[in-house]
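Student: Send me a single protein entry containing the residue sequence and its fold in token form, directly below this note:

Tutor:
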Amino acid sequence: MRPRIKRSFTRDGHDQDRQKSHRNKDSRPRREDNRRPEGKRAGEDRPDRRRSRAGQEDKPAYGNRRRPQEHGGSQGYGRAQGHGTRHERTERSRNGFKTDRRRPSAPRTAPAAPIIIKEDDGLVRLNKFIANSGVCSRREADEYISAGLVTVNGEVVTELGVKVKPGDDIRFNGERLRGEKKVYVLMNKPKDYVTTTSDPHAEKNVMQLISRTLCPERIFPVGRLDKSTTGVLLLTNDGELAERLTHPSYQKKKIYQVTLDKNVKQEDMDRLVKGVSLEDGVSYADEVAYNGDDRSIVGIEIHSGKNRIVRRMFEALGYKVRKLDRVYFAGLTKKNLRRGQWRFLSDEEVVMLKNNFYE
């Protein structure tokens, strides 16, 4: 595959000249009402007082070390200039003149927060129960609940967030829902099959390829592939996992092999990575590469979940897609699966999908 081209973003650096332009503390102009008497400045009677830059003689070399005991006590050198004793600073702080900007330290022994153990009452949210039954995802279940299509113990429920017990009579469109075991099926989708659970206008449906004897559970496709698109397709009754694999925020990786009507130019390959303007915004390919010497066959890696995104990107560049085959989806491939064949995922593959092991 062709190396990725990452989009760079410039960031303004810090203005170092501005940081260097801080004025010296001794050079600040004094207010008239706070002017000290002439010839009498704070610490002037001390032999080791730090002088201004105008007079560099007799400048002590204490740095940030503490003062010697005979030169003003144990206070820090910088803090002892004109601020008085510790007792005086404390009094000023009490009167509203706060001089210490440090954050007050936390108490050494903080009381431990009580541990609250949440009891498991056996209740689950209604949308989760519907999703676990294999009907749809949680988001779609919320829409069905709001539309009044769900009943609990004979009563229509339209409020979101309602919790139910496993023994409740929960029905969707009049049909009772039962908790089923989770099933995960991987299929190599053939051409001319519609990716949906039911379509009265479609002659061929991917659900017709699943044996109801081997898989009696009600499953549904995760995402959609066009009628003429082939390749990796996952079917399951785990609505929560299906939502994670299809939601745009999770950015699951997909790789397609695209066969076009003509050779793809190098500048168009670069445009796919830099971004192609479509009617719904700019879309990017994470990586593109030629498939060997045939430059009419291209491999493209993408994370976008927009509808018909690969076809629309090539059509925007003036190409016609003849074949589109998905060879990778969220870590799953069609290895050892011929067109139209399917198999159950292994326990290891299911764990990796649930733990977001793959992109």
